[in-house]
């Protein structure tokens, strides 16, 4: 992650990067709670069945609280811009979650550059921000202890 941040000349603590209007609305509209899970209010959800364990709750949150920055921000000069927007979103999301809930959260930011197989695009670049509540009995099941194994060019975890 550090090499990408240096390349983008991005300072996580003092950045004034603006979020696209749609992402601002997503945060402003807040969250909802379903079977003890904290979910983004504006996202459509499928019925989870019974979420009767911490593992199932974390799994449901990780699956559904999945924000693809590139879906909201199309006009870029460089794919690294997806990363700077994703980091700003993560910072704001962290602030919102801390102010609204008495719980600990894990926010994962992953960034991918476009890759090619010959002249064909293999993977399109983008940035994904996910979050879930940290629950004692499932904490390690959803912890990225070895970030080198994560299938991404850059990863940041905020707790």
Describe this structure as you would to a colleague.
The protein has 159 residues and is α+β, with helices and mostly antiparallel strands. It is 29% helix and 25% strand. The strands form three sheets. A four-stranded antiparallel sheet has the order 3-7-4-8. A two-stranded antiparallel ribbon has the order 1-2. A two-stranded antiparallel sheet has the order 5-6. A hairpin with a 2-residue loop joins strand 5 (115-117) and strand 6. The longest helix has 21 residues, at 80-100. The radius of gyration is 16 Å and the shape is globular. The mean pLDDT is 84.
Q: Radius of gyration in whole Å, from Cα?
A: 16 Å
The dominant shape is globular
Q: What are the secondary-structure elements, in order, as H or E?
A: HHEEHEHEEEEE
What topology, given as strand order, has the largest sheet?
3-7-4-8
Q: Using DSSP, what is the number of strands?
A: 8
Map the helices and strands.
Elements: H1 2-7, H2 21-28, E1 31-34, E2 37-40, H3 54-64, E3 66-68, H4 80-100, E4 105-112, E5 115-117, E6 120-123, E7 126-133, E8 154-158
């Amino acid at each position: 992650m550090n090499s990408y941040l240096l390349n983008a000349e991005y300072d996580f603590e003092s950045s004034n990067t603006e979020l696209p209007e749609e992402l601002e609305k997503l945060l402003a509209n807040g969250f909802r709670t379903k079977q003890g899970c904290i979910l983004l209010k504006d996202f459509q959800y499928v019925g989870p069945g019974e979420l009767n364990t911490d593992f199932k709750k974390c799994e449901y949150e990780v699956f559904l609280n999945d924000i693809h920055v590139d879906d909201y921000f199309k006009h870029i000069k460089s794919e690294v811009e997806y990363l700077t927007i994703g980091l700003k979103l993560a910072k704001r999301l962290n602030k919102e979650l801390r102010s609204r809930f008495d719980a600990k959260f894990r926010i994962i930011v992953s960034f991918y550059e476009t890759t090619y197989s010959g002249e064909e695009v293999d993977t399109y670049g983008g940035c994904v921000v996910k979050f879930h509540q940290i629950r004692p009995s499932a904490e390690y099941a959803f912890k990225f202890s070895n970030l080198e194994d994560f299938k991404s060019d850059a990863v940041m975890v905020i707790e």
